[in-house]
Amino acid sequence: DTAVSQTPKYLVTQMGNDKSIKCEQNLGHDTMYWYKQDSKKFLKIMFSYNNKELIINETVPNRFSPKSPDKAHLNLHINSLELGDSAVYFCASSHPLARQPQETQYFGPGTRLLVL
Amino acid sequence: DAKTTQPTSMDCAEGRAANLPCNHSTISGNEYVYWYRQIHSQGPQYIIHGLKNNETNEMASLIITEDRKSSTLILPHATLRDTAVYYCIVRGTRQGAQKLVFGQGTRLTINP
After folding, report:
1. Are B111 and B14 in contact (CB under 8 A)?
2. Which residues of A touch B93 (CB under 8 A)?
3. Are A102 and B32 inside 8 Å of each other by CB?
């Protein structure tokens, strides 16, 4: 059973297009995240939602818009894709309250985006 | 959150203990040390965390120095599947969403 799943696994698209990446978690967590890993392999937080509310919003272009329809889903929509958006995007989830001693984040398998 | 320093890469023979060091000299009293790893083409995976006592779980042991300025992750019997990038992360425990700040990590290669 997959804990954090992402679709699609691979996404190849042209510059200027609009695309979405979906994330779902079946862990019952109430906090979800999007991270970006660029070609140099640095992994950086983009957004975080807690109970469908935006909590963390790093310096990310307005072309990126996260949407959380419910606690189990956090989708990432990207408008007007640029070459520099090519990266691996990881979704993660956590339960920041007392179920675990401290918060542990569980990551999805990643979505490899290539913008041509 | 405190910054961490790790060696860029390490090698270890299969079956031996892999000891991965991490320096976090600016750590504050309420900050925990977390270790995650990222196996090639996969998402990061939580390994272990600790505050000041040594910790052990089914994956690894974490040794934190008395002054808490450094720590060592120990994989007691490394296997080929332990080849990955290992990240040492220091952060506090405020409630609510918390971002993980990943550095460059240590690329550990387990050799047969």
Report:
1. yes
2. 102-103
3. yes
